[in-house]
Specification:
The protein is mostly helical. Helices cover 35% and strands 0% of the residues. The chain has a domain at 23-90. The longest helix has 13 residues, at 56-68.
């Protein structure tokens, strides 16, 4: 599943309903989308074996976004798993659950 809606076009509502820890991250995620971080990471040419489930650029993107959102340890990244905005930014069809 690929998302085609840009983050900048998502509606922002300033209410506390359905807020998560990462509710204020829209600006940061829109910036990363604007500078095309995903495409830049794809051009690095880091290859894994052919049977790898997650490509290297996806792992690096997940780590960069997590660190920018304050995830300091690996188990902190688990809190990003259920956030719809972060999943939308990562264009995640499947979630990383194995640590």
């Amino acid at each position: 599943m690929n998302f085609t809606t840009k983050i900048t076009s998502l509606k922002t509502e300033f209410s506390m309903r359905n807020a998560t820890n990462f509710a204020g991250s829209k600006v940061l995620l829109a910036f990363l989308e604007k500078i095309r971080l995903n495409q830049a990471l794809r051009t690095l040419g880091l290859a894994k074996s052919t049977n790898a489930i997650f490509p290297t650029h996806r792992i690096l993107q997940y780590l960069i976004i997590g660190w920018l959102l304050g995830c300091e340890r690996l188990f902190h990244f688990k809190s990003m798993e259920g956030d719809a905005l972060v999943a939308h930014a990562l264009e995640a069809a499947c979630r990383i659950t194995a640590y």
